[in-house]
Structure prediction request, 153 residues.
Amino acid sequence: MQKKHTSLLTHMTSPVPLFSVALLALFICLSSAQAQAIKLQRQGEYTFITGGVNDEEQTYLDAQAPKYPIQLVFRNNGQVTDVKDVALRVKNVSGEVMVETKIKGPFLYLNPPSSGRFTFEADLGSETISMTKDLIGRRYLHLVFDFNKAKAD
Prediction:
């Protein structure tokens, strides 16, 4: 029995398993750092995440996207770079504000407690964009708010 234990120990100290363990530990640390940068937020029964200011956050958000049926993108002059501090209000069909927040990057993913009609009001500087949309069943809403968009002459 002692010999079997020694053999297992020798197998665990070979370079391949140690490399695999080190790689797994690195992946967990990176995922943890991304999760710390983008925190799950809750207002009432609504949960959401916001961010996307760098490649790591965008990769994290892409992985989380399927969990969030409402996906909002914020642009300034057609660009998603350096878009933050947009004030967002999400209202239910009765006009009650269910979520009120400032975004921390060009993306906000929202998970409401149920389907329904929602009004989204986003403010950047003196410009306000408002949209009313229906979330039906297991579908996704993908909405783009483009501030300071060049006006056609």
Q: What stands out?
A: The radius of gyration is 22 Å. The mean pLDDT is 83. Strands lie at 41-43, 46-51, 70-76, 87-91, 97-102, 107-111, 116-124, 127-135, 141-147. DSSP finds three helices and nine strands in the chain.
